[in-house]
TrEMBL record:
The keyword Signal applies. This is ABC transporter substrate-binding protein. PROSITE patterns: PROKAR_LIPOPROTEIN, TAT. Residues 42-266 form the Solute-binding protein family 3/N-terminal domain.
Length: 334
């Protein structure tokens, strides 16, 4: 399911070269083709949530001129709480959006022009979380128990379905309960026996509060059927050379953050002023630590797209009834 287009190399990755003007009288106008060497490709990148340290590679890439050095003039745009993840991208208000890859595949059924060209989280963040003293060691142990999810939609719901599917269960075998985005409170109070959340969000909150939990994987690590969040665009809107520069700038910013996490905290504070508070900063640093581990493949930050994993994801979403037919093409392999 890919749009495999030949990546432009060498000079195509650089900035436009200024034409060398031949000696001429001073009053002669310069050729129309001449352009300054600092001309950059302007684009808007959508971030599908309120400002958060999880978006720090984008903040850093702007603040530290990582995008600019790549010939990109990037404007970041945070989405509103009720905004469709791909609406602004499809309307042309955005050129790229950072979004859940599973949701992108589902959206591609109605908008087949959507393509993922970089995967930011090389490890899918969705997990099942249970109290450490619950005596639950596998997802299969949840048969007949209450499992809380925000709702029957989106990435957490797909994570729940994957967990059940891979454990040989289906929705009828558990009490899949809609609890809104109250997973931490619901599990802590015993309203549910397990929740589905993200390892770099709910798990971090539990550990910081002192509530001991255990994570259960939603899929086998060696053959995933759900892919982590990445960069999505519309086929044909941007040249592959531009997409490559965007992806590489994100990877470079991730590497900078891993080497010096304080860079991320400083860049994020420009967007999240509450990080000036010590407790808020400590919580954000814990989220960043959990998030940055998800960027790694073989110990190094990577933005590679696993085409086979996307194909499996489309098949899985069909198998569990989310979509009827997998989109023919969902990725751009650079």
């Amino acid at each position: 399911m890919n749009l495999r287009r030949r990546t432009l190399l060498a000079g195509a990755l650089g900035l436009p070269l200024t034409a060398l003007a031949a000696c001429a009288p001073q009053e002669q106008a310069p050729p129309e083709s001449a352009q300054p060497t600092d001309v950059k490709t302007r684009l808007t990148v959508g971030l599908t949530y309120i400002p958060n340290v999880q978006f720090s590679p984008f903040y850093l890439a702007v603040a530290q001129d990582v995008f600019a050095r790549s010939g990109l003039d990037v404007r970041l745009r945070h989405h509103g709480a009720q905004e469709d993840a791909f609406g602004a991208l499809l309307s042309g208000e955005e050129d790229v959006v950072f979004a859940s890859s599973d949701e992108a595949v589902v959206a591609a059924v109605q908008a087949p022009e959507l393509r993922t060209f970089a995967t930011a989280y090389q490890t899918f963040p969705g997990v099942v979380i249970v109290p450490a003293d619950a005596g639950v060691t596998t997802v299969a142990d949840l048969r007949g128990r209450r499992v809380g999810i925000p709702g029957h939609f989106g990435s957490t719901y797909y994570s729940a379905l994957a967990a059940l599917h891979n454990a040989g269960l289906d929705e009828a075998d558990v009490e899949l309960t809609d609890i809104g985005f109250t997973q931490v409170a619901a599990l802590s109070s015993g309203k549910v026996d397990a929740i589905v959340g993200f390892t770099n969000n709910e798990t971090v909150q539990f550990r910081m509060s002192g509530f001991d939990v255990v994570e259960l994987p939603v899929q086998p690590a060696d053959e995933v059927s759900l892919v982590g969040p990445g960069l999505v665009t519309v086929a044909g809107r941007l040249e592959d050379a531009v997409l490559s520069r965007v992806a590489e700038a994100m990877r470079e910013a991730e590497a900078m953050i891993i080497a010096d996490p304080e860079l991320a905290m400083t860049a994020t504070q420009e967007h999240v002023p509450t990080l000036a508070d010590e407790a808020q900063r400590e919580a954000a640093a814990a989220v960043l630590e959990a998030t940055s581990g998800l960027w790694l493949r073989d110990g190094e930050p990577s933005v590679a797209v696993d085409e086979a994993a996307f194909e499996r994801m489309g098949g899985f979403l069909v198998d569990v009834g989310i979509i009827e037919t997998a989109p023919a093409e969902t990725t751009i392999i650079l």
